[in-house]
Specification:
Helix 2 packs antiparallel against helix 3 and helix 7 runs antiparallel to helix 9. The protein starts with a helix and ends in a 7-residue tail after the last strand. The protein has 9 helices and 15 strands. It folds into 3 domains: about 30 residues; about 260 residues, no CATH class; about 60 residues, no CATH class. The strands form 3 sheets. The protein has an 8-stranded antiparallel barrel with strand order 1-6-7-9-10-12-13-15. Strands 2-3 form a two-stranded antiparallel sheet. It is about 25% helix and about 30% strand. The chain is an alpha+beta fold and about 375 residues long. A hairpin with a 2-residue loop joins strand 9 and strand 10.
Amino acid sequence: MTRGAVIVRERLRFWFLAWVFSALLILTFGVVSYAAETRSYVVSWYGHATNSQEGDCSRGVHPDIVEIYVQYLEHHGLSPSRIEELYEEYINGNRGPVSNMMAMRGRIDGKPVDGLLFPASVVDLNLPGVDGKYAYGFDLDQLGPNDPDGFEDPITHEVGIDHQLYRALGCARLFRGTLEEPPVYWAWSWDQLDGSQPAWLITITGEDLDNDGPVIITINRALEHLRINNDSSPRSHMSYRTDPDPRSQNTFEGEIENGVIRVTDHRELFLLQNPLVAPVMKLANFHLRLKERLDGNLEGFMAGYQPWHDIYWAFGSLGVEGEQMVSNDATQFYHLLKRYADAHPDPVSGQNKSISATYYLEAVPAYIYPAIENQQP
């Protein structure tokens, strides 16, 4: 018998056995049991959920980076004439002298030190945080209207919203923006991440995903980067292999109610990320709210308490040149994050080590399957 004939025979045998097995199920149980429905997605946009509005920084938006540098020079005791000279050089393109001074703007025992490496050694200029009414997020501490620092969510109008990361960074020029027009920093960071960081994956499983009911929500990381089209838009219905690394495996109980997907099991989310934003995405008391759009894509918010030192890592690691181009003064962000941190106090100092944070994300449909050892991409 030829090889082709053998293949045909085996295929016919397989389908005959499958038909017999199905018939036995029908005869035994009357109906065939079907598996739960599953829909999978790949995150196609991710950034801080900002809601900048006119008047939400009553003490004003933070000065431009060069104006902040002038404040440091004044604090370090330079004469007005020398400061003016350095200022003119800087704005006319000769940034070297000021940049060198700002790299060593910290002071320990009166001696200059790397300010980005030792941000606590840099004077706190007491830059303002957001004091407006609205911010996206969740009532993480369940204080509701009794939370003196709580915002109101502009979509759900829930009060007592905990989103101190927005309060800390929302008055910085390059961090002001909306969901429709993201801040400069987050637009830049996503442009770096989508081509260099393995994609994040979301899988939702339930009996009927078109109706209300309990679901299981899985969030993990792919081995591949986000697939994009020629115009840089995310490409839907592409295949991704899940990264078997146990550090990026997250499964939560959830529910669908009125078309909104929520996590009901508020444990910790942990995903490997990228030092451009944070080495890891770690959110305690994890909250998630997603909704499917008419085009089949997902959009929504995830939130929790995030270690603020992880967030500072991204700013401090950019260096002086990076803060001049994409972030503004990183060392003042250190002071702002420390000031507005609202969870997990240190048992000795009492300083809170985490800050409430909300991120906005979008996701497109994808096919997800486990990675197989030694399998080629």
